[in-house]
Amino acid sequence: MLIIKLALKNILGAGLRTWLNVIALSFSFVAIIYMQGLYNGMSDQMEKIAIEAEYAGGQYWHSSYDPFDPLTLDDAHGKIPDNLHTLIDRGEAIPILIRAASIYPNGRFQNALLKGIPPDQKILSIPSGVLENGGTSIPALIGGRMARSTGLKKGDYLTVRWRDTNGTFDADEFFISNIMKTDDSAIDNGQLWIPLEKMREMMDMKGEATIVVLKSGSRFAENAGGWNHKNLEFLMKDIRALFLTKSIGGSIFYIILLLLAMLALFDTQILSIFRRRKEMGTLMALGMTRGTLIQLFTLEGAIHSVLAAVAAAIYGIPLLTYSARTGFGLPESTDDFGLAIGNRIFPSFTGALVAGSILLVLTVTTIVSYLPARKIAKLEPTDALRGKMT
Amino acid sequence: MEKLAGQNKKKSFREPGTDSTYLIKTENLSKIYPIGLTTLTALDNINLAFVKGDFAGLVGPSGSGKTTLLNILGSLDSPTTGSAVVMGKKVETLTHREAAGLRNHHIGFIFQTFNLLPVYSVYENVEFPLLLQNFSSSGRKKLVMDALEWVGLADRAFSKPLQLSGGQSQRVAIARAIVKNPELVLADEPTANLDAENSRNIMDTMARLNENLKTTFIFATHDEKVMRYLKRIITLNDGRVAKDERAAGEGT
Question: What is the DSSP string of B79-139?
Answer without folding.
Answer: -SEEEEEETTEEGGG--HHHHHHHHHHHEEEE-TT----TTS-HHHHHHHHHHHTT--HHH
